[in-house]
Amino acid sequence: MLIRIAIEEDLSVLSAQFDLYRQSLGQLPAPDDSKDFIQSRLQENDSVIFIAQLESEILGFIQLYPSFSSRLLKPLWYFDDIFVVESQRNKGIATALIHKAKELADETNVLAVRREHLDEDGFLMIDNDDSKSVFESFSRAAVI
Q: The whole model's pTM is what?
């Protein structure tokens, strides 16, 4: 399995998966809006989307957004979006995507966090030793 940065050629499959991800979070299907949203992210380069790929099949994605923390006085990468296609769940793909996000954070000397709206301090740090626990706040239907 290869984990790489998404490119324009991935738009069709990636936007369909993004729409499924949104539906798993209770949103109505919006394939055109999902495509426009992902296309804008790819063109404007205002997020990083890693995809997991096996041969020519895209198995899932994680989307990271650059930001800053005034409280922590540091730049950070945060993510709210991670998805693995249903037929490929429970195979370690989501964990591999999280590890890739952590790798990017380490390479850029930036914190990697999961924005958590209900958590006490607002962030869950991504930890190499316990990345699977990060998933507990996600919809199990979308991640595992």
A: 0.80
